[in-house]
What does this fold into?
Amino acid sequence: MKSCWKKRELTFLTLYALLFYIIIIRRSLQISRDYHHKVSGLRPGWLADQLNDTSDAQWRNFRGNLPVLTAVFGIFAFVAYMLRVYCQLKARGMAVVWLLISLIYLTYLHGACIIFILSIASANFLIVKLFARTKCFSSALWVFNLFFLIYNRIHGGYSFSSFGHHWAYLDNFRGTFRWHICFNFVILRMISFGYDYHWAHHGSHFDQKKHIQRCHICKAGKVCYLHLQERSVPNDKFSFSIYLCYLVYAPLYISGPIISFNAFASQLDMPQNNYSVRDVSWYGLRWLFSLFLMELMTHLLYYNAFAISGLWKQLSPMDVFIIGYGVLNFMWLKFFLIWRYFRLWSLICGIEAPENMPKCINNCYNLESFWKNWHASFNKWLVRYMYIPLGGSQRKLLNVWVIFSFVAIWHDLEWKLLSWAWLTCLFFVPEMILKSLANTFQAESAFGEFIFRELSAVAGAVTITCLMVANLVGYVIGPSGINWFISSFLQKEGLPVLGGMFMTFYVGTKLMFHIDDAKKRRHQHST
It folds into this structure.
């Protein structure tokens, strides 16, 4: 009886979802056609004489440089592979090879500004070596890195002329890419190196035997990323050459994914074997298909152009919801493509980094799941190097405020990002409290299980609504648009849209429950 009812519910939920996306896509196509002459950032495209939405600078630059990047990384991968095979190089040798390759790459990107990167990195190396065995290590490491994180942004990466007129000529050789933007990732790596070196001298609490018994990858004779991350490398791997190679490793330098020092140094010796040539090829083909989907979206649906142009203020509440929802999906696919492109080249070169975006944005119904599956490698970094050192679950309610404030500052020094961070925390705290209460609840009957599932779906709908509002404030309307947003959706025309939006998120959450149930059944059959 229960199974029959669930099948009927799944049929209804699937039909509702199909109807929802048909309505969303039709209306998106309509408003894109009606307003294409009013939005900015559209350029002639290649698909059926359609205009292409290139309003997002990050995507425009990445897309425009794809042919050059692909050729450059192809050459880098070939040279590194040939030197490894014919010279039989191990960690130190490959570190020197990749360091030289990466410095050539950085010289093209940043020109003379590479001096700033190497100077700050060298100073960080000295601080780690001097303070690693002292009680003030964490304070010294964080103060140094936070200082340069903020100071670099305030001064826009510095000018050579500020250090003296005889250095001013170097300002004419600043490369093609602002170094202080990429340096945010370098800071994460400098902190990772520092803590991994510090913990190597204080013993690790990682139980390798227990982990291997539980991990299906390690059981199969391979080594999973968690094992690589938690297992300390020998002391000789913490050399200056391997450290610099880790900071500027070309395939992951611009945008990650973020990899810990332990995991990186381990794979210099033994290249990753979790992905076969066939696996990497399939990974690349899936990426190409995703790129085609992105091209379809930007040629037919001008979501980001609406957000950039501020034209959403002239639209109805229903259309604002569609644009907001579309922008989030555009952002997800943009980062999905950028991160997986660089991870693909890293895999080809023998270094496995954590996967960002392992789960679709439309398959997350709570904030914790969303952040674990968005910038997933950054989330792993935050847990390892911030959340646990700050006290972990014992101070969870306080830690989220510190961590999300850091995430906002790490992205950029903007009030709208801090607003996004604090709004997310406001929504996160009630979720954590409710989740801890839900974990203590045991449904003793079928009716009790039904009620619990319905309440969980309602909570999921509330969470998705809050998440959407927080991201709209952070990336579309800004803090100044909050009053307009609230007044528009609380008027007579906006209330039905708000109700429909909530109902849709409720249905979506229940559909995600069915997906989770199917995954659990598959896992049980496989074990």
Summary: The first strand starts at residue 42 and ends at 44. The radius of gyration is 25 Å. Residues 53 and 302 are 6 Å apart (CA to CA). The beta strands are 42-44, 51-53.
